[in-house]
Specification:
Elements (H helix, E strand, L loop, with lengths): L1 H17 L6 E5 L6 H4 L4 E5 H9 L4 H18 L4 E5 L13 H8 L4 E6 L2 E3 L2 E4 L8 E4 L5 E3 L1
Parallel strand pairs: 1-4, 1-8, 2-3, 3-4
Antiparallel strand pairs: 5-6, 6-7
Helix pairs in contact: 3-4
């Protein structure tokens, strides 16, 4: 429990520090399945992107899904009343059909809100890595050390 309290305090401190930055983007390396207890003390909103995108793309023709996906995410984040947005369960965005670079999109949107991405995948040499190079969903993104929160 002490580890969780320490991490919550660190998150609060990082959020406060990021308020002064142009981009308020952070990535939390997290292998645990449950994150709600981490953010109970922080005024924030946890978004399950997989559910949001899946529900909203149901009636959209496949040709338009790539365009609509970024619009949906942008609207959901900008219209959320919370200043801190936690992004979890966003694997759908790596689908090649949707043509999204999720980390770049979240970083861009962090000009308007503090965005913390929960990252449960590989992290090596300041790079976030999703899937393996042979996989269709493979993406690799460079990240600044000051954007990382390592548990």
């Amino acid at each position: 429990m002490e580890d969780i309290e320490w991490l919550v305090k660190m998150l609060e401190q990082k959020i406060e520090e990021k308020n002064l930055d142009y981009n308020q983007f952070m990535v939390l390396l997290w292998n645990n399945t449950e994150i709600k207890h981490l953010f109970e003390e922080i005024d924030s909103s946890i978004l399950n992107i997989n559910v949001i995108i899946s529900e909203q793309l149901l009636d959209i023709p496949s040709k338009l899904q790539a365009i609509k996906t970024q619009q949906i995410i942008t609207e959901v984040i900008r219209n959320n009343p919370q200043k801190v947005i936690i992004i979890d369960n966003f694997e759908i965005l790596f689908s090649p059909i949707l043509k999204v670079k999720p980390i770049e999109l979240f970083r861009e949107l962090s000009r308007y809100k503090t965005i913390i991405v929960i990252w449960r995948y590989s992290y090596e040499n300041n790079r976030l890595i999703y899937a393996v190079p042979e996989h269709a969903e493979y993406q690799e993104t460079q990240i600044n050390k000051n954007e990382m929160i390592i548990n």
